Amino acid sequence: MTSLIPLIETRRGETPECLHFGAVAVCDTQGRVLASAGDPHWLTFTRSTLKALQALPFMQAGGPRAMGFSSENLAMLCASHSGEPMHVAQVQEMLDKAGLTYKRLQCGCHVPMFVELGVAPAPAQYDERNHNCSGKHSGFLAMCVQQGWPVESYLAPGHPLQQAIRRDVARAVGLAPEALKMGIDGCSAPNYAMPLANLARGYARLASGVADAEFGESFAQLADAMTARPDLVSGTARNDLAFMRAGKGDWVTKVGADGVQAFASRSRGQAFAVKIADGSKVALHAATVAVLDQLGWLDEDQREALRPWRAETIASIKGAPVGERSPVFTLQFER
Fold first, then answer.
1. Residue whose C-alpha is closest to residue 39's, from 259, 198, 176
2. What Rg value do the Cα atoms of the chain yield, rounded?
3. CA torsion angle 48 240 65 100 (round to 10)
4. 278-292 confidence digits (pLDDT tens)
5. Residues 78/226, Cβ–Cβ less than 8 Å
6. Residue 63 in contact with residue 217, Cβ under 8 Å?
7. pLDDT digits (tens, 9 = 90+) for 199-243
8. With 0-12 CB in 10 A as exposed, 13-18 as middle and 19+ as buried, what is 335?
9. Alpha carbons 180 and 173: distance in angstroms, whole number
């Protein structure tokens, strides 16, 4: 933690109240660090930012064509969705194409995220399809069906699916498979920790699409799907939806639990990864907008569209301003 720096500060009245530490890495497709704040090589779990890269074995094996997956289905492979009806419908469609019931999903079940966000009341019933990672898990199952692998143990680290994911994730981010530090994500799937710069490199390559010599067509299909349907990748009132809509097709981004975000520009061939050490979502969103601003990626319309995600004003329950939130870091650009 000694390599982290303050990124976001909150003040109540004239007195500092909270200080959120973290790090930022800005990279190109070759993994060169172009700018940073704090340690760009800080080792951190990728959480749901990894989903687009976890889809690579399925993409590379021709899974979408073999299983009849649409672009909307591909967006769901990368999603941390809110469990809204449109998301559940896509998951069910993916499972139908794989010939499986939703009871094969091993992600577990939780109250749909749209309920927590106050988008709509809780449905009378919900199940694994409402889980925010059910799209990723449906893709996992589809590849098992395509390859003839056992579906009962698809989350086991030694399963052929998870071995293939570890191999392709490592290739995408420029690390050896054994350099990926494994942990188990909230949805029970293996997840990997890596330096922030390597995560950023993976997203720069994802955004480069067909220009990537190794994963070009797969990256192009995934990036196209994410930018075409950010509502499926995310959900109503969610940050990934707001960011990708503001990006007008250029920005490919994905949030992860506990304060991590990966963000790429297709036109620039660059990406950045942000990690907030204490996992604060509000601080993460504010830091992400600040990085975009400092990189010069925002025009006036985009700056205004993303203003709510800066969360500059801290308000009381009655809506009165009582404090402010602001970035306290400056990106250091490499010469």
1. 198
2. 19
3. 60
4. 999 999 999 999 999
5. yes
6. no
7. 999 999 999 999 999 999 999 999 999 999 999 999 999 999 999
8. exposed
9. 10
pLDDT at 335: 82
Cα–Cα separations (whole angstroms), residue 14 to 140, 241, 317, 323, 325: 51, 34, 19, 8, 12
Whether the CA torsion 44, 46, 49, 54 is positive or negative: it is positive
CB 136 within 8 A of CB 51: yes
Element (H, E) at 182: strand 181-184
| Helix, strand or coil, per DSSP, at residue 183 | strand
Answer yes or no: is pLDDT of 145 > 70. yes
User: CB atoms < 10 A from the CB of 32, how many?
Assistant: 13
Helix (H, G, I), strand (E, B) or coil at 270: strand
Helices (H), the chain: 51-54, 56-60, 63-67, 71-77, 85-98, 113-116, 134-147, 160-173, 196-208, 216-228, 230-233, 239-247, 281-295, 300-305, 307-310
Q: What is the dihedral of CA 298, 300, 302, 307, to 10 degrees?
A: 100
What the block records as the tokens of 319 is 């809506």
Nearest to 63 by CA among 155, 150, 161: 161
Q: How far apart are CA 212 and CA 257, in angstroms?
A: 28
Q: Is 4 exposed, middle or buried (0-12, 13-18, 19+ CB in 10 A)?
A: middle
Quote the CA–CA distance of 80 and 9 in Å, as a whole number: 28
SS3 labels along 35-54? EEECCCCCEEECHHHHHHHH
Q: The tokens of 53 are what? A: 């890269």
Residues in Cβ contact with 152 at an 8 Å cutoff, skipping those fewer than 6 apart? none
